[in-house]
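EI: anyone free to look at a 96-residue chain?
SC: sure, send it
EI:
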Amino acid sequence: MRHETIKTGKLITFEGGEGAGKSTQVSILANRLTQSGHQVIATREPGGSPAAEEIREVLLSGKAKPFGAFAEALLFSVARQDHVDAVINDALAKGS
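SC: here you go
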C-alpha cells in the first residue's frame, strides 16, 4: 500500500500596534524562510487581496469614520474574509 504525504502550509501572523516593527519582522522571517527553501507568501491586513486593498484605502482614508465603529468593523471583517478566500486558503492548500 502506498501512502501519500499531504503537504500543508503554515500560517504565521504578527500582531502589534502601528510602528511596532511588524513589517520589518515579517520581511526578516520571509527572507530567512525563502533562503531555507520554503515558499513564502507575505500579506497584510487589512489588505492582501485586490478587493481587500480597496477596502484598506477606504479605512485608512477615514471615509468610513462617519458611518461609525460598527461599519468600520464590518469593513475590516469583509476585507479579512476576502483575503482569506482569495489568498490564504489557496496558499495553505498548496503547501505555501
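EI: The chain has a mean pLDDT of 92.
SC: 👍
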